[in-house]
Amino acid sequence: MKKALYTLLALFLLAACADRPENPQVVAEQPHIYPDYVDVTVPVGIAPLNFNMRDDCDRMDVTVRGQNGGEINANGDFADFDISDWHDLLEQNRGKDLTVTVCVKNDGQWKQYQDFTIHVSPYALDEWGLTYRRIAPGYEVFSHMGIYQRDLASFDEYEIIDNGRIPGQCVNCHMSNQTDPERFVFHVRGNHGATMIQQQSKREWLQAKNELLGGSMVYPYWHPSGKYCAFSTNQTQQSFHAMAGKRIEVFDLSSDVFVYQPDTHEMITDSLLSTPDWSENSPVFSPDGKTLYYMTCRQQEYPAHYKDEQYNLCKISFDPATGTYGQQVDTLFNAVKMGKSLTWPRPSYDGKYILFTLTDYGYFSIWHKEADQWLLDLQTGEARPLDEINSPDAESYHNWNVNSHWIVFTSRRDNGLYTQLYLASVDDNGHFSKPFLLPQQNPRTYYGKTVYSFNTPDFTKTKVDFSSRSAATEILSDQRVKTNVR
To answer: In angstroms, how far is CA 9 from the centroid of its own chain?
Structure first.
């Protein structure tokens, strides 16, 4: 009896696997797939670019052939490629093209679409994965959220810290040192607020606020030496729009910039970075550690004049040997003259560029439909909109990988509601490839059912070594390291 059942099962599986295209009708159009992976550029080692048809179908048959050889096939409800076979195909075709043939069956009839191409980049993406925050939509309370990490070679996601372990707290603003999580930082807001500094697995929880600063330590960025970490301190508020198409505005009643020295627990301040009539914000170090970039705007009366909150990009020199600033602040990019506002500056680690977001006003660009990515060339001083990666919806948070040939950024382009993660390649001339959505095992199911937005993404060289359980205990203990100001 068992033998007969096994035989029937084998015949059933054989019949299912044999459901391959025969004499398909060839149509003169490319397939409408989700996500849109047509003509994208991907790194060797990325997880399979599985995809669905945008319209329902009875069955799909997808074959991928490499320009340098190799072929893989997926046959089923969606294009679900074997991970090992996919990785082997990409490795064999580094710097070459993949040709994708899609056949779809409906009502017993197969249809074959025009082939499309996926480019395999010659530029390595050596980082293990990504870190990011996932947060449910909400404005007035800290709903479910967490900081997570994702293996880029597979679909595996791991928790770093989830506020389900620390109810009522907000976890945000995380950053590693040039993608190396040996130095890692994030901030906790709420009744048990703190700033966490982890170096070589040694963890400290700093007091959330220093009264001499007048605020918390947020928006961190490590000095390349690891000796310092830049922060801003912000008194942030939000207001709600009463018009359709706009939801929320976030602004700062005040904000200043400073550099923290973990070994001495000192906050290094300066009057040039803590001016009474200007808001300094979002500091970042240059790759050589000798310049501190930040954005600044003239203080406004909020919320009445929120549209007048417009930021420029400035810089000041920094001496890592002494921990001292220069005597002069220079404006590097004047967005205000354009009637715009600059936010989230991020220097490439090769020292060539600064990637930033340009919006009409404010700095919380994630809520601004008009927000676009721009690139400042530090050699020529010229800046341009990145038309090759921008969309009609909001582009926002972004970071570089360590060799400066890849970026990750957030966008609402998919549905206008949730921010999702996109990756793009950067060539030697500063041109960006067509972005691709972070791959998932079954994209339609994953992105169609998720109710979370992704934000503050960064690459991570290795998996972040962090115990969420012990960290939650430490957060709730309220044991904090005091900080000093000099």
So the answer is: 45
